[in-house]
Amino acid sequence: MSLTYVLEVVLAVLVLGAAVWTIVARSAFSSAVGFVSYGLLLSLVWVQLAAVDVALTEAAIGSGLTGVLLLSAAATLRATEGTSGTGPGLAMRVAAAICCGFVTVAVAAVVLTLPEPSPTLAPEVVAALPATGVGNPVTGVLMAFRALDTLLEKVVLVLALIGVWSFAPDRYWGGHPGLSHRLSADGVLPFFARTLPPLGVLLGIHLMWTGADAPGGAFQGGTVLAAMWLLVMMAGVRDAPAIRERWLRLALVSGPVVFLAVGLVGMLAAGAFLAYPVAIAKPLILLIEVPMLLTIALALGLLVAGPPERTAQSL
Amino acid sequence: MSAVLDLFTIVAVTAGAIFFLAGVVGLLRFPDTLSRLHALTKADNVGLGLIVIGLLPQAGSLYAAFKLLLVWLLVLLAGATVGQMVARVARRAESPG
Prior knowledge:
The complex is a heterodimer. Chain A has eleven helices and two strands. By secondary structure, chain A is mostly helical. The longest helix of chain A is centred in the N-terminal third of the chain and has 26 residues, at 52-77. The termini of chain A are far apart. Chain B has one domain. Chain B contains three helices and no strands. Chain B starts with a helix and ends with a helix. The chains are: A mainly alpha, B mainly alpha. The A-B interface holds A 188-189, 191-192, 195-196, 199 and B 74, 77-78, 81, 84-85, 88.
């Protein structure tokens, strides 16, 4: 029994423990905290499986950003929590447990009955990778071989934000999201929000840049940038922008728009939608990734900031 | 020389792990929030610091060593901030008004 094996077993037990804790926790807040720990442990599992790209995404999106969303939802719902009759009834709980159990068993069955060796496109990806100019196969798949999925993902992100904004009451439409009404000059959090972002912004851009040849990418980098922006807004160092701002909306759609434009040019230059001429594949991928980073950072930050709750004139 | 460095690593990392263990015991056993925070932040700051110092000889390159130190500094910054904020909430909850 090797040391790695022991580590893997301990990790698996911890992940299962965090999962159970997340489900059985009494308050929504504890449950959200459990979910964050669960996500961080899960990203360690991905590292152990040598899937560092997935680990980074799990830590940034699955644990970090979703965690913040769940925590703010829990904070919003705290007032209604604990009052009798609001929770789901026994029948509902049993039905949910049966459905979840069924999904777990089905996934386990599929994974355990995979043929050996499991079907994979990895050799084809590795063989075709030099044509894209990037060295990280994950980035190659996301930005070249399956670029359409990545493009649609960004569109979904913008649509999700429009969905959140549509919750705004008419009188606040175009106004500021509701985070941090008081701007404070000093205190622990504002100090933190002034100290960390320079390094965080550097790290976010580094993650995007290094994603070409090493684990990383626009999504992970964008999430780090969004986290820095949220920190600045939550600490009250800077107010959230009014959502009617022209620059904000242009920057939000810049990712999908540039992606689409490059895709359409590919139709003329390389013969298919989203095809890149091999000679300039790498610069084109970078051209797409930079506005995409901006779109991801803005969309994720604004998704957490929520619908507008103040008019654009106030503050 | 490498045996000495390995020994240094083992001693420092073990000491760090002991700090973490003590921090966990404190977190579970101390009577009030502020004491528990005290235990937790000591484990984070000193324990992680000792582990990072212990791992420095094994880092292989200056760049990797710098990254290890950076991780420690960031945890120090985040830990100190979060510790302060939790303590504030706890104090407000203890003395209403």
